[in-house]
Design brief:
With 366 residues, this protein is α/β, with parallel strands linked by helices. A hairpin with a 4-residue loop joins β10 and β11 (180-184). Helices cover 35% and strands 23% of the residues.
Length: 366
């Protein structure tokens, strides 16, 4: 399907003015991630800034200094959870981080509002709906916050609560525009893996190809790991989430967005461990109305020895599978998988956090 005539009329995925990251001392991998995001921003029309213990600077001017990193007592790297930039120009944050956030306030010239209870940004999306700002939010927040309080603090007209795909909704849901919301569906990935294994087996048999045979066996092992992880997953809510969104009037698109593995300890109630998460993403609307989708690189293709040549033979790679699943909404050339020399895959695997978690999005003031 051609994608050169994409035209959106306006729903979420608004233009981003800037992204803010925080340096807690990850060194060279973080530096490479900053460079990746900065290059994408320069080509897409948004700025990138990095805050260390001394100041806020442009991404292109950032250099790692081990003596100027922020402390990590409050999970500072997760800027999306700790800073909320509203379309009305205000910035919300917890009062506990006043000294850290005030540096950003002084730099951006946007007023800072200290909150006793600041909702973490990974569990909501501010969306555009009929020229009104509305909110897509995880239901867990309703245990602690009243709807009227949320509406007032986040300056939204309507609130759409959905079930949790994980402890934050940005790990399994990603709104685009025109009432379109991407929802991770483990069945889509499972079916794709099954087809890839079948294709690899057939190709290896017909062509006596030992490399493809090796890939087949690795994919079979991966599928087994994935299925165990899916069974042990605490959050089996994707069908419920899809129904909730559709009842609200959204169009849902099922995508193969996440690959999880089970806990090494075998605890069925343990946290999900992401070997791939393409849902956790930043979406920016360019001046021509097209979308830029910035998400996390996975190491799964490398682990499975899927080279471009192998991909042609079996018709499968994890990254291409996801790209194809959203090509009707985002041009393939505008989909970016950032890595940071392994910083992103490690963050997903160890801490469940990806690029959306790491970047506080600064929207254009409306």
């Amino acid at each position: 399907m051609k994608t050169d005539k994409i035209n959106f009329t306006g729903f979420d995925a608004r233009p981003i003015k800037a992204l803010v990251l925080r340096d807690i001392g990850a060194g060279e991998p973080f530096t490479k991630l900053v460079n990746e995001i900065t290059n994408i921003g320069e080509n897409s029309g948004f700025d990138v800034f990095v805050q260390n213990a001394e100041k806020v600077m442009k991404g292109k001017d950032y250099k790692f200094n081990p003596f100027k990193v922020l402390p990590n007592e409050f999970y500072f790297p997760w800027a999306q959870d700790n800073l909320t930039f509203l379309p009305n120009g205000k910035m919300l944050a917890t009062y506990l981080l006043r000294s850290i956030n005030q540096v950003v306030e002084n730099f951006t010239k946007r007023p800072l509002v200290d909150l006793k209870h600041h909702i973490q940004g990974g569990n909501f999306f501010i969306i555009k709906n009929n020229d009104k700002n509305s909110l897509l939010i995880g239901k867990d927040e309703l245990e602690y916050y009243k709807l009227d309080t949320i509406k007032k603090e986040l300056d939204v007209k309507n609130i759409y609560p959905i079930s949790q795909p994980d402890f934050h909704i940005d790990l399994g849901v990603r709104p685009l525009k025109d009432s379109i919301v991407l929802v991770n569906d483990y069945n889509v990935l499972s079916d794709a893996l099954h087809n890839a294994i079948t294709n690899a087996k057939d190709f290896a048999y017909k062509n006596y190809d030992p490399e493809v045979r090796e890939v087949q066996h690795i994919l079979e092992e991966m599928k087994e790991v994935f299925e165990i992880g899916r069974v042990r997953n605490r959050y089996k809510n994707n069908e419920k989430i899809i129904k909730e969104l559709q009842d609200y009037g959204f169009k849902t698109v099922r995508v193969p967005g996440c690959f999880i593995r089970p806990s090494f300890q075998g605890d069925v109630n343990d946290e999900n461990h992401y070997m791939a998460n393409f849902m956790n993403a930043i979406v920016h609307e360019k001046s021509d109305g097209s979308l830029v989708y910035i998400t996390n690189k996975s190491l799964l293709d490398d682990m499975a020895h899927i080279t471009p040549d192998i991909e042609k033979k079996i018709g499968f790679s994890f990254h291409s599978l996801f790209k194809n699943s959203i090509k009707d909404y985002v041009r393939p050339e505008n989909i970016h998988f950032v890595c940071g020399d392994g910083y992103i895959p490690v963050s997903l695997e160890k801490s469940q956090g990806g690029i959306h978690c790491l970047c506080a999005e600064v929207p254009v003031i409306e």
